Amino acid sequence: MIKIKQIFIDMDGVLVDFVGGALKAHGIKYRPEWPSCVYRMSEALGMTDEEFWLPEMLTEQWWAKLLPEEWATSLCVSLESKCPGLRVLTKPVSHSGSWAGKKTWLCRNLPGLYNRVTMTDDKALQAKPGVLLIDDCDEECDRFIEAGGEAVCVPRPWNSQTQKGGIAEHVLDCVDAIESIQPENPNFPRMQVDCPMPECKPPKGIEVDHG
Question: What are the residue ranges spanned by the domains of the chain?
Fold first, then answer.
């Protein structure tokens, strides 16, 4: 039986409503019908990458102000209770605004994870036996498994798990199915989602709400 010692969770499409923010930036009021298993949003909207990435979407402020998915907090708390030491693993776009904005987003919405984030252009580098990735991209999950880790694909319209039902319930059921959870350090301090993080210094003009 596989023993999970570390859980990584993705941001965009899992904790962060990137799609809703992008649609709003483009003035699209209703979510379009998503082509089956098309991950790239530009492709789903019939746009080139140049047309899709508006200048405002490359700023720190835009990334920092994206809304959390409704299950983000409860899912993180549940995962933390299963395996203390939950970490964020995210792949920012190639622009400094994305990197900085993601850190500020965590400060505002999940401050307990602010100092538990790894940003990389290759998530599979973190893969090894006993390490689990929770992601919304089929390709990222496949690569993580091929590199020696475990992965759970979060049901979203843009991946193969889209018909699996409730997001948080599906993820937790899959984690339970992998079993058994055995944190590397069982005495790791538990994450407090609403705890203040004095190290977090958002850019000017962005309000931080720790409550």
Answer: 6-178
**What is the 3-class SS of 53-112, one letter each residue?**
CCHHHHCHHHHHCCCECCCHHHHHHHHHHHCCCCEEEECCCCCHHHHHHHHHHHHHHCHH
Give domain 6-178's CATH architecture. Answer: 3-Layer(aba) Sandwich (3.40)
Q: What are phi and psi of 68, to 5 degrees?
A: -75, 150
Name the residue with higher pLDDT: 169 or 61. Answer: 61
Cα(159)–Cα(49) distance, rounded to whole angstroms? 20
**Dist CA 105 CA 16 (whole Å):** 9
Q: What is the DSSP letter of 124?
A: G
Work out the pLDDT band at 188, boundaries 50, 70, 90.
Answer: very low
3-state SS class at 13: coil
CB of 108 closer than 8 Å to CB of 209: yes
What's the pTM value of the predicted model, to 2 decimals?
0.84
- DSSP letter at 136 equals S
β-bridge partners, 132: 7, 150
The two structure tokens encoding residue 66 = 């994206």
